[in-house]
Design a protein that fits this description.
It is a single chain. This protein is an all-alpha fold. About 75% of the residues lie in helices and about 0% in strands. It is built from 19 helices and no strands. It has helices spanning about 5-25, 30-35, 40-60, 65-70, 70-90, 95-110, 115-125, 130-150, 160-180, 195-200, 205-235, 245-270, 270-290, 290-295, 300-310, 315-325, 335-360, 365, 375-380.
Length: about 400
Amino acid sequence: MKPPKHILPTIVIAQFFCTSLWFAGNGVLTALIANLDMGASVGNITAAVQFGFIIGTLLFAVLMLTDRFSPSRVFLWSAVFGAVCNLLLVWGSTPTSILISRFATGFFLAGIYPVGMKIAADYFDKGLGKSLGYLVGALVVGTALPHFLKWLTALFPWEYVIYTTSFLALSGGLLMVFLVPDGPYRKPGQQLDFTACFSIFKKADFRAAAFGYFGHMWELYTFWAFVPFLLGFHAKEHGLSLFRVPFWSFWVIAVGGLACILGGYMAHRWGTKQVAATALALSGICCLVSPLMLLFAPTPLFILYLLFWGMVVIVDSPLFSTLVAHSAQPNIKGTALTMVNCIGFAITILSLQAITTLTGYVSPYFTFIFLALGPILGLMGLFSTRKKV
């Protein structure tokens, strides 16, 4: 039975509204820090939301919250508390209060991003790849949002962005709880099992899907973080004083949203695992050829190269989540998705730290070769079992 037509658009809109807490907050950091004269705290503020998300997903997974309780209600309350924590940026005026606000916002995003995928999986058994393609596509556009907000905060006080994103989060939570009841494929867990989030890795097909996702995450967020650097470095090397780095940064990241949607349709035709593996391989190739592009590519070719990389680096994300959902036991599907997200985002922090450290020892021309380590290990993990995923 096909779900009502409003289900998928509602999930996508609610997810985008609520994850604006994550990315729009980053967009106002420059103005916020300038107002408070916080200087060196920039990195800590940015990392706080990531650590909050990791701790939140770990706790949500261990307690099996999305499998034991209604996912829509978990989504709602996470949106409510996340919106309140986001408002602490306006109400608080000390470095400590701002760090607490960003950490707490990240914590409650654990009840939004993976839970949104769980809700989609409860409605779309067949065609889940296409559904998650739309879902992750909206998230990708949200990721690009801070680059757009650099322009927006020049027109409005930064507090207005915080008020708006908190309002959007509340709206998204209400949309989900009123318009998207528990799906027909939901099988709630019967009892709390503290070992469930670890025992899921005993299944070979689940491990293959998860390891592919982990390799993908090693590359993804570090690439996104360094897009402005890559564009700025190219502009400096070519003497392009009027080059619009924020403009092209937005498009290099945002084009991945379209890629996620197209990838879902491609997976429906050629197979989820095959399309995910192809995208992972292509993004790995982009890492390996980065020295050639930085050294020799003219500006039009360099921009096309980054746009292509921006597509293939993310297109496999909803596909790996689809493989994870299909290979997990139905009664712990939410726990499985949340745990894989937890480990994946922990890997992004390791990758960011590793590449940032390398920039102090290795020429920028060759630094991004090391991102290929993720796709290589991810492909090895994905095909470590012959069992069809």
